[in-house]
Amino acid sequence: MNLKKLTAPLLLTLCLLAPIPAQAAGGAIVLPEYEWSFSGVFGTYDKPQLQRGFQVYKEVCSSCHGLTLKSYRNLSDLGYSDEEIKAFASQFEVWDGPNDEGDMFKRPALPSDKFVPPFPNKNAARAANNGAYPPDMSLIIKARPDGANYLKALLMGYDPAPEGFELPAGVSYNSYFPGHKIAMAQPLTDGQVTYADGTPNTLDQMSSDVTAFLAWAAEPEMEERKQTGVRVMLFLIVLTGLLYLLKKRIWSSVH
Amino acid sequence: MSDSSAAPTQYTGLKGWIEYRLPVFSFMDHELNHYPTPKNLNYWWNFGSLAGITLVVMILTGILLAMNYSGDTKLAFQSVERIMRDVNGGWLIRYIHMNGASMFFMVVYIHIFRGLYYGSYKPPRELLWMLGCVILLLMMATAFMGYVLPWGQMSFWGATVITNLFSALPLIGEDLVIWLWGGFSVDNPTLTRFFALHFLMPFMIVGVVVLHIVALHKHGSNNPLGIDIKSKKDSIPFHPYYTIKDLYGLGLFALVWAGFVFFSPNYLGHPDNYIMADPMVTPAHIVPEWYFLPFYAILRAVTFDIPLGLFTIDAKLGGVLAMFGAVGVLFVLPWLDRHPVRSASFRPIYRWAFWFFVLVCLGLGQTGALQPDEPFYFILLGMRIEFFGIHSVVFAQLFTVWYFFHFVALLPLLSKIERAKGLPKSISEPVLRPAGA
User: Fold this and answer.
1) I need a labelling partner for B403 at 20 to 30 A (CA). Which of A54, A98, B154, B241 fits?
2) Which of A88, A91, A92 is nearest to A74 (CA)?
3) Distance between CA atoms of residues B269 and B295, nearest Å
4) With contact defined as beta carbons under 8 Å apart, do B397 and B200 qualify?
5) Which helix (H) or strand (E) holds B62?
6) A22 and B81 in contact by Cβ < 8 A?
7) How far is C-alpha B93 from the chain's CA centre?
8) Do B231 and B263 reside in the same domain of the chain?
9) Integer Cα distance of A166 and A168 in angstroms
10) B386, A18: Cβ pair inside 8 Å?
11) pLDDT per residue over A55-114, tens digit each?
């Protein structure tokens, strides 16, 4: 009864305020919505895609961006064998020691080592990149709003700057980077990486692949989490249903 | 053997032996089986027990996390990521704990609004209410310090903003902040002490919760009619009636909690907290967690100095006082609202005031999420509703004024002038004779 009384003034107020669709308003950057194998309740990672994405990361991104929260052994999630992982890790060198003589020494990385970053520290990274710091990629998908869509849009968003838009030297225009001035030059272009499985190496494809790889890097537990979640939810629905029936039965004697 | 003969007759054997020395069984029997509970409690009364269960889950998951966490600025962020990636079941424990903070505030806020609607703070439950306010304060301190522990960007900058508030206090402010920090900025000593206090405070909450329950059980629960239990017909034993009702509610609550944990664990968080704290880089917007947004809005609403004759309260101190006052005013609520009728169901004007107050609190939450100079808007059913481009800070000020007006002026006024509808003679009366009879 009270709700009915409310309806008229409420509707009137809403009309006065001239609502507009949420998406269209605000002037903020609106990200495109891409299809991802890992989105949704039943989402899973596509292993061949992760392998392709790893290839893109390895051949392109890793020259500037670290992946320091991952260990080489984690690559087994992508379907690589122990031998492949060992061989890949051994291309990198890490400091170890002290040995029996008390000296620190360099040795080839092992699967148990963390990914060796491209620069020894932040200052070295800045010095090599015009003062800009290429962030670590381990968590990038979780560290940006709508991370997967953002990253793919960013990789494909190197559009020509609008007329009159002032760009300092060494800075590129990007439609999706906040402020549109990005220190990273366009990293991916059509045909840049040659995929072993013959997948077309378009910009779109490579951007999707490397984004999927980094989504895995950020949330390696995602598949287990969602699959456990489905079972937990089913269990809780049944349990709650039974509790409801029991509640009704116990309360049936109360008047 | 001679002991058992002296024990109460209903307990024999080992139970009798223990009962004679430590009366736990008669205590439980008294507080569950013989504890008379109004028979007309609705589902809004589920949220107290949900809050208690959430507290237990938070403590259990928290202890497990503490076993793997390092409270050192050089290790904290990585140790959380190690929990997420390498500790068995670590991601589950952390996501339960992280979303649990939001769930805790959600049920506690509903619990508080239920108390406001049904007048649960009125005599003889003033101390029960005030103990609840103490729990809220402790929860806020605990949640704030817990959010600092992952040592992400929002952790660091949130801690910097909030601890800096104390510098607004006259004379001692600056020194107090240095004392809180254990240094000249938020740094390793701050993180380490926050970890220690974050571990301690939940147990202080447990202590106050025990007092809260002792006070509750003295006079029993309020109820939707807001009238006292008058005869045996009005009440039912807590067990099994409310144990099963609470369990059913717990099932529904667990579904919501699990939904966040398994399918959208970071929905309520801020992406910036997955960037390691960097004192040299300030995030574009420093925003607290959603449950602090209304208070954050009140803090920022005071944008002007307040002249008070001989001295002036500057804007910063004014904001701090308003923010703490927003919780402080709850403590004295039993003496602001002195209307003899408890339940809003029988107070036609207060009922409107209550729902308007709920909207004001939601509005404060929204203004807290926006930048002060951003036009105020909110999203309703996928539509963005704007208000002629008026800045959100203006709305924050209006809402803040109403927040205090509601407590300090409106409630005392209504206590005097509002005429309540006729109350039912007893709880069982409207239950026995359905409405309209």
Assistant:
1) B154
2) A88
3) 18
4) no
5) helix B47-66
6) no
7) 22
8) yes
9) 7
10) yes
11) 999 999 999 999 999 999 999 999 999 999 999 999 999 999 999 999 999 999 999 999
Distance in angstroms (rounded) separating the CA atoms of residues B229 and B242:
16
Tens-place pLDDT, residues B260-302: 999 999 999 999 999 999 999 999 899 999 999 999 999 999 9
Q: How far is CA B301 from the centre of its chain?
A: 22
A128-132 contacts, C-beta under 8 A, 24 or more apart: A128/A64, A129/A64, A129/A183, A130/A170, A130/A183, A131/A183, A132/A183, A132/A184
Among B15, B39, B217, B391, the one annotated catalytic: B217
Respond yes or no: is residue B126 known to be catalytic.
no
The 10s digit of each residue's pLDDT in B106-115 is 999 999 999 9
B179 and B95 Cβ atoms separated by less than 8 Å = no
**Residues on chain B touching A25 (C-beta within 8 angstroms):** 377, 384, 386
My answer on whether B146 and B248 are in the same domain is yes
Q: Is B23 in a helix, a strand, or coil?
A: coil
Question: Do residue B87 and residue B194 come from a single domain?
Answer: yes
Superfamily grouping for domain A28-70+137-243: Cytochrome c-like domain (1.10.760.10)
Task: Clarify whether residues B276 and B308 are in a common domain.
Answer: no
Residues B145 and B214 in one domain: yes
What is chain B's mean pLDDT, rounded?
94
Is B217 a known active-site residue?
yes
Query: Crossing angle for the helix pair B315-331 and B293-301, nearest 10 degrees?
Result: 130
Residue B437 confidence (pLDDT): 42
**pLDDT for residue A132:** 92
Confidence band (pLDDT; 50, 70, 90) for A17? low
**Contact, A212 vs A50, CB < 8 A?**
yes
Q: Do B248 and A244 touch (CB under 8 A)?
A: yes
Is B294 in the same domain as B275? Answer: no
How near does any CA of chain B get to the CA of A19, in Å? 5
Q: Which of A27, A8, A15, A47 is nearest to A212 (CA)?
A: A47
**Which residue range forms the structural domain that includes residue B69?**
35-283
Indicate if B245 belongs to the active site.
Answer: yes
At B217, which CATH number?
1.20.810.10
Q: Do A233 and B259 touch (CB under 8 A)?
A: yes
**pTM value?**
0.93
Residues in contact with B126: Cβ distance below 8 Å, sequence separation at least 6, in sequence order: B334, B335
